[in-house]
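>> Question from a student workshop board

For tomorrow's exercise we were told to take the sequence and the ligand below, predict the bound structure, and bring the output to class. My setup keeps failing. Could a helper post the expected result so I can at least see what it should look like? The ligand is S-adenosyl-L-homocysteine.
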Amino acid sequence: MRSDTVPEQRVSPLISLPPAGMRDARPGLSGVPADELDRWLTDRGQPAYRARQLSDHVWSAAAQSSEQLSTFPQRLRSELDDTFRVTTLAQTDITAADNGLTQKALHRLDDGRLIESVLMRYPARGWRRARATVCISSQAGCAVGCPFCATGELGFGRDLDVAEMVDQVRFWRQWLAGVGQRLTNVVFMGMGEPLLNTDLVMAAAAAITDPQRFGLGARHVTISTSGVVPGMDRMTSERPQYTLAVSLHAARQELRDVLVPLNRRYPIGEVLGAADRYADATRRRVTYEYVMIDSINDTPHDADAVAELLKDRLAHVNLIPMNPVAHTPWLPSSTERTDLFAARLREAGIETTVRRNRGVDIGAACGQLAADRAGAPPPAAVARRRELLVIQSAAALGATPQAQ
Ligand code: SAH
Ligand code: SF4
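>> Workshop helper replied:
Here is what the output should look like for this input. Compare the format with yours to find the bug.
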């Protein structure tokens, strides 16, 4: 993370990650430019058609190991293994929930770091076609430290490289092919803050949407940010037509300072300005995500503040019930409170949807599985963290009037 974007006053992570192991020097195939691969094949005296075969294996078939490069002679496969990794995901454990409609993967990388991706399948309904959305991680851990987020609890590990991001998507393409389904959407909403790894995230998204590589439509890719203004402006200048999602979570400054610590560096007004510039450039609605936390940010007063903030903007609000995580003193809002909040926004003319939380029983909130594997933080540290959050949120709520 660049020093100019480190949020001030953030609390230190509850869990210290184990030191990472050595990196594997072989690059992941999906991150290597096509012309380099072509040269590599030519240097080995391979016929021209091998390049197309290799590209088909990597992108269309989403090969996970050199054994799956079925059209390649054995010797070439082992030469390839000496130079590249067919996948950068060293090991993957999958857990299913929602009758198999949600699948969560915990991936181990070459240096032992753990990241997560989630597959959410939505059966066809009425005129809507079936969808299969994959949520991928952009960093191991995250430096922003939102107190309701399990990834925030881990602190920052490292940026993921292009192949590590793309390989999460390729992993699910092959898995879905096994059940006769197609991957339709990719969201950068797993572990990490994508726009604090902007160069590599943009390169990964380009690979995912390149017709010669993964080939998904740009509108089917969503990048979610806690509000990194320079990264949002970079997206605007490149105009890639991705869907931009902004994690709002509070419309009132004092409360957002607590819920999204990056707000102290990039306050709501600046974030909305950057979101508007993106919406103007792409003519596409920005999604505002809002995690519903009982009696913290879900009052009618909060709904009115959100409506005031977003009126006359190209905006869509997505309300997400908070997935409970161990270190917070907070609870998810009830369905009734969430529905009332949604109704109030709609009355004010704001397009609003309520997202049903997928895979709560397998810890599908971002970072939860990796946090569980990292071990429970000391109970005294959890108690102190909870106390601090109660004090901070009470102070923030005291700063503006509350209507329950
Ligand atoms: N760092 C980026 C993207 C990853 S987080 C961001 O914050 O936007 C993706 C989404 O999951 C964010 O909207 C985040 O606020 C939400 N999220 C994190 N922890 C959650 C929890 N415990 N319950 C529900 N949503 C959560
Ligand atoms: Fe990082 Fe997003 Fe989690 Fe906040 S919600 S800690 S920005 S991953």
